[in-house]
Amino acid sequence: MLKSKAKSGNPTEGETLKDEYSDVKNEKKPSHLYYQDKKKLRINEELSYKQLTHLYLHNNQIEKIENLDGAIHLKELYLHNNKIKKICNLECLVYLRRLHLGHNEICVVEGLGNLRNLEELYIEKQRLRESDSMCFDPRSIFGIRQSLRVLNCCRNNIMDISNLAPLTGLRFLDVSQNDLSNIQEVCDVLRNFFLLENLNVSKNPISKLHKYRESLIGCTTNVKLLDNKLVNDLTRVFIKRMEHETSKKRSEPTINLPKALEDVSKNYPEGLQKSITRSILEKGRKNLSDSVKDAVVGCGDATGDVFLPMKKFPKPKGSLVKKRMKFFKFNTRKMGPIVEEKSQSHIQNVVFVRKVKTTSSLQ
């Protein structure tokens, strides 16, 4: 009877929620109250029905949250699409599990410190000015850090989500259509969300970056849906392994020998500059800094030389040079012994002819 009455009839301007309860005071007290889609609604008097668990007040013109202290067992509260500017007067709703505050005029997420059982918070698409950005009160985030599982705060001009780091129990997070531009800060926050399964960061400045999707997959552990697209387990394993190898290479100590040693000529190609023997290192070791000395000592044996690989040598350019190089290789590999024998026999013949000529002239 309460549900049908709340939806039927033309509501009068300035209608109050207390009047609806006074009409059913002699009946069984309801657990669900549907009072949505009223043009103007005010909560003038305190609700004292302890059996009330679900309260639907969306699509009205409510400007302030008030007089809900009596509904101490309320579990779900729907206040979306109103004119609320501030979250307040919710301290007594300690059993509240779901709170809908989307499509209002809220700029600061606050007043949630006592909601220890809150599991779902919907505060998306606030009607804010372009210069305003939604921010999160650390006290409220700290109060709901253990219970919150779902957070939807899309399209709120959010520029930073570092205050959301304590929400390690999140399984669903939607921060799409905001102004997130620093992917490193976002990844640092997401690394703590080990239970996160559904993540939406689309339509942010970071979503236009190169390999942004790979970066988010690499910093998360259990995400199965990213920007409404499935994440393959093989892809996650591959990205994790690649990041591990990259970080391992970055952690290894490196040294730029051509810059450390003044004896190396800057006119040489880059590859030849790096081809430095151990003797040069030992001679110039006295003039090096301590960090460079340690790197030099750990290079290997003191007697060994550091040679340049063949691939690092400059290759000849031009078709003529290549042809000559091929001909040279062909002669040295295949025709070398034959050419050498012919040259030696030719020399012997010349010497024999000269001897014959000299003997004939003497005669």
Detailed description of the structure:
This protein is of the alpha/beta class. It folds into two domains: 2-251, Alpha-Beta Horseshoe (Leucine-rich repeat, LRR (right-handed beta-alpha superhelix)); 257-312, no CATH class. The chain has eleven helices and 14 strands. The strands form three sheets. It has a ten-stranded mixed beta sheet. Strands 1-3 form a two-stranded parallel ribbon. The protein has a two-stranded parallel ribbon with strand order 7-9. The termini are far apart.
Number of structural domains: 2
From the coordinates shown, what is the CATH architecture of the largest domain? Alpha-Beta Horseshoe
H-E order: HEHEEEEEEEEHEEHEHEEHHHHHH
Number of helices: 11
> Which strand order spans the largest sheet, edge to edge or round the barrel?
2-4-5-6-8-10-11-12-13-14
CATH topology value of the largest domain: Leucine-rich repeat, LRR (right-handed beta-alpha superhelix)
Structural class: alpha/beta
Round the Cα radius of gyration to an integer and report it.
40 Å
Number of strands: 14
Query: What would you call the shape?
Result: elongated
Low-confidence stretches: 1-12, 21-27, 298-306, 333-342, 350-354
User: Can you tell me the CATH superfamily of the largest domain?
Assistant: Ribonuclease Inhibitor
- Oligomeric state, counting identical vs distinct chains: single chain
Q: Would you tell me the overall average pLDDT?
A: 76
- The share of residues in helices is 25-40%
Per CATH, the class of the largest domain reads Alpha Beta
| Sheet having the most strands | 10 strands, mixed
Strand content: 5-15%
CA(first)-CA(last) distance: 151 Å
Organism: Agrilus planipennis (Emerald ash borer)
InterPro entries: Leu-rich_rpt, Leu-rich_rpt_4, LRR_dom_sf, SDS22/Internalin_LRR
Keywords: Leucine-rich repeat, Repeat
Protein name: Protein phosphatase 1 regulatory subunit 42-like
